[in-house]
Amino acid sequence: MAKTKIIKNRAVEKKLVGLADMVIASAQREKDPTMEIPLRALSNVTFNPRKGLLEMGGKKQARSFFNVGMAKKFMQTMLVADALSELQRAELTTSLREIYYRTKHTIQDSHENTFDTQDESDPIIEDLEVSLVALREELHVRAENGGSVVGPLVLGDDGDRVDCAKLGKGGYSVPSIVEPEYVEIRRCTADFVLLVEKGTQWNRLSEDKFWRRYNCVLLTGNGQPPRGVRRLARRLHEEYKLPVYVLVDNDPWGYYIYSVVKQGSINLAFESQRMAIPKAKFIGLSSADPERYELPRNVGIKLNEKDIARAKELLNYQWFQKPAWQVEIKRMLASGLKYELDALANKDFQYLTKKYLPRKLKEKDWLD
Amino acid sequence: MATHKSTASAPKSVSPPKASPQAGTSKKSDSRAGSPVTAVEMGARQREISVSEFFTKNRHLLGFDNPRKALLTCVKEAVDNALDACEEAGILPEVTVQLEVVAIGSAAKPSASQATRFRVTVMDNGPGIVRQQIPKIFAKLLYGSKFHRLRMSRGQQGIGISAAGMYGQLTTGKPVKIISRIGPKASAHYFEVQIDTKKNEPLVHENKQIEWDQPRGTQVVIEVEGRYQKGRASVDEYLEQTSIANAHVRLIYRSPDGETKEYPRAYHELPPSPKEIKPHPYGIEFGMFLKMLHEAKSQTLSGFLASDFCRVTLPLADEMCKTAKVSPSAKPRDIRGATAETLYRTIQATKIMAPPTNCLSPIGEKAILSGLYKQIKGEFYTAVSRPPSVYRGNPFIIEAGLAFGKAPDSETKPEKPTMPLAEGEQEEGDSELARVIRYANRVPLLYQQSACAIFKAVLATTWRNYGISQSRGALPAGPMAIFVHIASVWVPFTSESKEAIAEYDEIHKDITLALRECGRRLGLFLRRRERAASEFRRRNIFELYIEEVAEACNRLKGGKLPVEKLKAQLQKIASSRTGGMKTDETLGKTGAGPEGLPHSIIVTAEGIEGESSLAAPVSDDMAIEEQPAVPQSERRQKVKTGSDKRSSGKATAVPSVPKKGSSSQHREGPGGTGRKTHRTEKRK
Ligand SMILES: Nc1ncnc2c1ncn2[C@@H]1O[C@H](COP(=O)(O)OP(=O)(O)OP(=O)(O)O)[C@@H](O)[C@H]1O
Ligand SMILES: [Mg+2]
C-alpha cells in the first residue's frame, strides 16, 4: 500500500462501519442482513439532456446474506468494506489489485477461497462506491495511472512543481487521483485540451510538438481514459474554461469513449457529476473523414459482428440521438468499415500533426 | 411338442424309444425315395409313451435344459417343497441347502467352478413324509398332493422333485436318497429310490430305519450333473431372493466352495395359511365343464352348480338354469351337447361374485419390507400389497416393493460441511439399471425375464414421473431393486417351466398400480431428500460465510464486538431459513422420522430411522403405528423436549443383527450401535 499522505475523511469510514452495524442489528432482530445497492446498468441510467450527462436512477438491488445466490457476494462485500475501512484508518491508498490480494484467503475448514479472481472484487468496490455514495478517491482506491499529459501546464504534486512543458516527449504520468487536495493546477496557458484515445498517436503528437504549435494540453488515457485523466480534463475545462476535443479511432468503441468523456459511463453514472464534460467535442476520426481526407479503402478494417451490434446499440442511446450522430454512426455501418487513427500514416508519417488536425481545427469540423 | 434330435441323447441307463428295433427300419423309410408306410406298419409302431419317457426327452420343459440351470432346478424343487410342507404344517421353516462337488471315478475332486457333478442335499424341519408315500413322491412323476386342489402353494403339478430325481438318475445313474421322520416319537426312514421310466413307477433300492439327529423333517439327496457359477440365475441368487420374499424362513446354505451363508429369519410369523377353494365358474373352460358335469356327485343340476363351484348359491343356480332353459332338477350327467353349451354360456354371462380370496396368502407389506431390508442395502424401502383381483375366475394378489439407494455408509459425504461440492454426487452410479426380482407364490422367477408380465409392467411404468431416469423402452436407471410378487391359486405361467407370467390384462393392470404406488412413494422420498439436501447445502454455505462476515464486522467495529454472540444469532437465522428442524428431521438429525410414507423404511447414515424393530412380530408395532399423525408443530416440540427418546421405551427395539460369519451380502449391522428402525404407517 502506497504511503501517500491523504486527508482523513471520517464520513467514509462511518459509512463503512455502518455496514457492520446493519449486520449486527439484523442479527439481533433475526432478520436477514440486507444491503441496498444501486443498480449499475443501462436500465438504471437516464440521460439528462439539459445537463448533458448521465444520471443514475433510483433502482436498487437488495443483497441479502441468507440467500444462496447472494450469500457469497454479501460476505465478499463485508470483506471489502473491512479492507476499505482499514485503508481509512491507516490513511493509505491502494490499488484494486491490492484490495483483491488483501481480502483473498481460504475460508476456514474449507477449500473455498473468499475470492478466486480480481474480477470478483473489482465490481464489489464499485458496488460500495455507488451504495455508500463515496468516490473511489474517497475510498482511497487508486486506478492504474495509465494516462499522460504534456503541454503548457504547471502542476503541483506532493509539493513538487511539475511543468508539463518541460518533460520531454514522455510527459507527466497522470495519477488516478487528481483532486485539488492531491494535484494542484498552478498554471495553464493552453487554448484547448486534446484528449487522444491512443497512446501511439499521443506519442506522435508529443514528438511532433503539436501542443506547442497549437498551444494545447495533450492528454491520453491509453484506451478508455481512466478517472484521473477524465478528471484532469474536466478540471481544465471547468477551471480554465478550455474546450476539450476528443480524438479517437473511427469505430464504435471510439464513439463510446467519447460518450464516456462527454456524459459519463453507465457503470458509474453517479460520478458523471464530477467527471463528465458535456461540452466535449468529437474531433475525429469521423466516418466522413476517409472520404474527406481521401484515405484509401484498403486501410479500413471490416466491421465485425460485435462492432455492428455495438454500433446499433449506440444508435439507440439517448445521448446519440442528435441527427448528426445518427448520420455519423449510420455512415460507418453503411460503409462496413472502421479506421484506426494510425491509418493516417498511410498518407504521411506526420499526416495527423501536419494535415489532419490543423485542417480539422481550421474547419471547426467536429461533432457535439 | 416335437421330439428334437438333440434332446434325444439319453444316457444308457434307460432305453429311449429311439433305441428300439423300429428305429433301424425307420431309417430306411425316412429316405425320400422309399415307399410310403402303410397304416399297418405305422400301427406296429404306435404305442403308449409314459410321462417319464416323455420328460426324459423333453427335460427342458421342466427346467433341465443345461447343466447350470439343472443344478438350480434341483435345489429349487427341493426347497419349494420343503417350504410348502412346513407352511402347510404350520411350522416356521428352517431349511439347509448343501452343494458338494463329486469326483467322477478315480479322478481328483475338481474345484467348484470346474466340477460337472454335484451332490444336492436339502433338509427341512417340516412335517416329514409317511413311509409308504416316499417312493412315489420321489420316483413317480405326476404324484403329489397339490394338483387336485385350488389353493395357493409353490408346487402345483406333482412333478417337481421326482423330475429332479429322474434327471439325477439319467445323468449320474445314482438313486435319490431320502431320510424322513414324521415326529420325535416316530423313527426315521432311509430310502434309496429310482424311477422306472418306462412304467413311471418307483424302484426301491434301499429302505431301512435309521438314527437321525433331527426330531422331524425330510432330507433329500440327489446327485446330478451340473455346473456351479455365481451371478444371475444362480443357486445363490435363487436362495437370496427366496429369503427376500420369505422373511419367515431361516435358510442355511453351504456352497460348493465350502462357504456357509445364513439367511436369517427376519419375520417371526408364518404367513396365514391359505384356504382351499372350489373353482369359480368364470375360470372353467367348456371341456372342463363337461367333464365336471359327467363326474358330478350331486343328483340335481342346480345342486351340482352350487356345490362344485364357489360363489354359486342354490337360488343363483336355479336362476341360471332357468335362463338357460334347462330344468334345475335335471341330472347333471344328462346335460350334454347344445344344452350344455347354452348353460355354459349362460353361466359365463351371469354376474357372479368374485371368488373368495382367503385362498391366497400374500407376503404382506411388513414381511416384504423385512425381506428387502435384510437382503438389499439401500436408503429407502417401500412395499405395497394390492387388494385381491381376479383373472379368468382365479383370484390373485399383486404385491410390489422397492429398495432404493446405496448403503448409506457410502453416502456420508454430504454430511461433511467442508465439501460443498456435494451437488454432483447423486448422479454417480445413475447408469446402473434397476434390478427386477419376480416372484410367483413366493418362488423367485429367474429365467425368461423379458417374456414376463412383471418385467413388461416395470418397463411400461413411467418412472420419470417419480424422479428416476429411464430411457425409452428400458428399465429405470438407478440403484434400485424392484420386487413384484403374484400370489394366486393358479399362477398363469407362459410355459411349463414356470419361468414367466402370462400377461393377462387384469394382472398387468394390478402390477402397474402397485408399481405406481411404490414409485410415488419413492418420488416423495427422493424429492424430500433432495430438498433437505439442498437446504443442508444452503445452510452449509451460510455457516461457512457466517464466520467471515462476523469477523469482518468485528474488525469494522474496531475489534470490540461480541463476535460469538453475533455468530450464534446468524446461525440461528441460517437454520430457520433452511428448513430448520424440518431439514434436521429429513436428514435424520433428530429422533422423529419423515412422515407420510406408509409401509416404508428410510435408512440414513445414522441408522434406520424410527422406533419399531423390523425383527419384532407384527402385532405390537401395528398398534403404535396406527396412531393418527401428529401435527407438525406438536411434533417439533416433542422432539425438543424428548431429546432422550431414542433410548427409552419402544426405541430400544433394535433389529437383530445378522450373525457373524454369514454372507457378505448381508447387511452388516454396525454391531448394535443404535441402528434404529422406523416405519411410518400413517394413512395418506
Ligand atoms: N419335503 C417335503 N416334506 C413333506 N412333503 C413333501 C416334501 N416334498 C414333497 N412332498 C410331498 O410330495 C408331493 C410331490 O412333490 P413334487 O415336488 O413332486 O410335486 P408338487 O410340489 O406337488 O408340485 P410341483 O411339480 O409343482 O413341484 C408334494 O405334493 C408333497 O405332498
Ligand atoms: Mg414341488
Verbal overview:
The complex is a heterodimer of chains A (368) and B (684). Chain A contains 13 helices and 17 strands. Chain A has 368 residues and is an alpha/beta fold. Chain A folds into two domains: 107 residues, Arc Repressor Mutant, subunit A, CATH 1.10.10.10; 216 residues, Dna Topoisomerase Vi A Subunit, Chain: A, domain 2, CATH 3.40.1360. In chain A, the strands form six sheets. In chain A, strands 10-7-13-12-14-15 form a six-stranded mixed beta sheet, with helices on both faces. The longest helix of chain A is centred in the first third of the chain and has 23 residues. The radius of gyration of chain A is 22 Å and the shape is globular. The two termini of chain A are 41 Å apart. Chain B is α+β, with helices and mostly antiparallel strands and 684 residues long. Chain B has three domains: 210 residues, Heat Shock Protein 90 (2-Layer Sandwich), CATH 3.30.565.10; 69 residues, Orthogonal Bundle (Helicase, Ruva Protein, domain 3), CATH 1.10.8.50; 307 residues, Ribosomal Protein S5, domain 2, CATH 3.30.230.10. Helices cover 33% and strands 15% of the residues of chain B. Chain B contains 18 helices and 17 strands. In chain B, a hairpin with a 2-residue loop joins β12 and β13. Chain B starts with 20 loop residues before the first helix and ends with a strand. The N terminus and C terminus of chain B are likely disordered. At the A-B interface, α1 and α2 of A face α14 and α15 of B.
